[in-house]
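Human: We require from you a protein record containing the residue sequence and its fold in C-alpha cell form, and nothing else.

Assistant:
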Amino acid sequence: MEKLPIIEMDASSIASAIKKKQFTALEAVTAFINRIKAINPSINALVENRFSQAVQEAKEADELLKHKGPLGKLHGVPISIKECFHVQGMKTTGGLEHRQDLIYQEDADVVRQLKQEGAIILGKTNTPALCFCQETDNKLYGRTNNPWDLTKTAGGSSGGEGALLAAGGAAVGIGSDIGGSIRFPSHFNGIIGFKPGKGSLSSEGHFPSVQHDLQERMLTVGPMGKSVQDMQLIYEILSGAPVKSQILNQFKIEILPTNPGYPLSVRTSELLRQLENFLEKIYTVQQIMPPYFRDSALIWQEVMSINGSKLVEDEAFNNDRSGLVRSFLKEKLRQRTNVHPYLSRAIMGAKMFKPSHKRVKEINDILYQGDELLKTYLDKRLLILPVYYRSALEHGQVFKEIFSFRKTYLQYMPYTAYANVWGLPALTVPVGEDEAKMPIGIQIISGIGNEDAIFRLGRLLAKRFRGYKLAQLEDR
C-alpha cells in the first residue's frame, strides 16, 4: 500500500506514526505549516497562526518521546481550531472589527482537553460574523473560498475549518454546530464532520454563547477531519468515555425518499438511490420521512429568533451608533460599515420571525413530546439524510436561500435543522461528487447513545463511496 504524504494523513495515523518514530512531530508540524503557506492565500481559511509556538511544542513533544515520557492520544498531532473558541494567547473576535485586539488567557474546555492529549494547535480558522450564517465571510478577515472551486462557498459557520482540512492544512479540527455549522462545510468541502448530541460535550469558552435554553439544546461542539476513526477518537477524548459498542445489523436503516417534497438535486437523488441499493443487500433498509421532519425548519428558525437575537445585535453593534437598519441600508448603498450585511440581515430576520411567549411555550411542549417519541423511535434506527439539496453553490447563494424574508428556509433547512432541533448526533460523510467534481455528503443520524452504530455505518460508507480526498488547489 502506497504511503500517504503527511498532509493527507488523519490524526490517528499521524499519532501512531510519531509514536512509532516513523517521523517526528516537528516533521509533521512543518509539513502542515508549509501546506498552509501554499494554500491559504487562495482560500483564506486560517486567520491567525501560532506557527512559531507550534514548532517549539513539536520539538518538546519529540524530546518527551525520546525520554519515554507520558504520551497523549494526539501526541504531536497538528490541529486547527475554529475562531470562536478561546485559545490562550490568541484572539477571539467573532469576525468583528471592534474585537480584533481581544486576546484570551484561558482555553475553551475542548481546547484544553485536546492540548492535554498532546495536540499542537497551528492556528484558528475563519467564521462568519458571530457564527451567525451558513457562509463564511466577515468584515475583519474577509471571505473563505472552497478549495475545490474558489468561486464556490465553503459553507459556515465552520467554513474556515472545512476549507483548511479539505486542502490538507491540518490533521483534524474542531467546529461547532447550531444550524448545520459543522455539516454544511463538511458537505461542501468533502470532509468528515461529527455533530454530537445535545449536552454531550462542553461548549464553555465558545463565543458567542447561546441566549436561551432552547438554543442550548441545538448548539454542540464537534470534530471535523479526514476519517470517521478520527471523529470517534476526538469525540471520545472530549466526552471522556469510549462509545458503547453496538452491532450494526441490529439497526434498521431509513433513507429519506428521493422525492421528499423538498428541493433535491438529480445527482443527490442518484446518490441516495446508490446508497440504498448498496445497503439493502446487507441491512434492513426502507425509505421514510422521520417523525417531526416537516416541523423542524420552522422550529429551528423560531428558536434561533427567540428575543429577536438581541444579545447578538448588542455585540455586533457595540461600537457602532448607526444601528442595525441604518447599517444595513448603508451597506446596500456601497458605503463602508463595520458589520457584514450577512449579519445585519440575519438579525433583521430574527426580529421578523421572533416567536411570541405563547409560541415559545408551544415549542417547549412540542419538543417534550418529540423527545419522548424519538427516544423510542431511534432506539435501533439510523437515519440517512442529505445535508443540503445540492453541492456547494456560488458565494452568497446559500445565504439568499436560507435568509430570505420570503421564508424559503422552510424549503432548504429541514435536512440540517432536524438534528439541531432534536439534539441528535449526526455524522457527515462524503459519498460522491456532482458533474463539476464538487463533493456531496450525507448525514447519518440517530439517538444519543447510538454513536458507535453511526460511526460503524460511516466507516462503511466512507470506504465504499467517496470518503475524504485532498483538494489539489494547484489543479484549479
